[in-house]
């Protein structure tokens, strides 16, 4: 239970600040830079990347990419809420930004939920060729393997060898609904990446 302050000098903060959704001091610094902002918002099953221009009348979305597009247009039949899908969504947004002659922007990550997927989307945007200031330490070590989905393949291979029943249970969504072999996620990732490059 949240305890509210009392007294004549108490002033309740803005709703989004009170709910822990917006850091207004950080947002003010980003707006003062007058640069295009890249926002990444993730749910359990999907991820959205937007490139936003701030104006007095309100923000304007210049570029947008939604992870469900990967399934509809780019041959990604696996889960849209994992790290490889997050990277592909970021890469898609970056490629679309390049077609609009956008060369640079800054990250506006807001409250940093779903850290690994947000970082994967960031990496996708950077790899697409958008110039975004960041440190080398921003991305974890061996992150490339996780982006390609090799960690999923390794886990699936271990389960299939040692606990086949649990393997069928854990990957039933891949095997039965999506008809995807979890041992070939990296190949599916490469095919979807090429599809994005060819269609944008």
Quantity of strands, as a count: 4
Question: Quick check: average pLDDT?
Answer: 86
Quaternary organisation of the protein chains: single chain
The order of strands across the largest sheet is 3-2-1-4
**Sheet bearing the most strands, described?**
4 strands, mixed
Number of domains as seen in the coordinates = 1
What is the CATH architecture term? 2-Layer Sandwich
Supply the CATH class.
Alpha Beta
Give your account of this protein's structure.
With 200 residues, the protein is of the alpha+beta class. The protein has one domain (17-199): Nucleotidyltransferase, domain 5 (2-Layer Sandwich), CATH 3.30.420.100. Helix content is 48%, strand content 12%. Strands 3-2-1-4 form a four-stranded mixed sheet. It is globular and about 65 Å long.
List the helices and strands and how they pair.
Elements: H1 15-18, H2 24-32, E1 37-42, E2 47-53, E3 60-66, H3 68-73, H4 83-99, E4 106-108, H5 115-127, H6 143-148, H7 150-162, H8 164-170, H9 172-177, H10 185-199
Parallel strand pairs: 1-4
Antiparallel strand pairs: 1-2, 2-3
Helix pairs in contact: 4-5, 4-10, 7-8
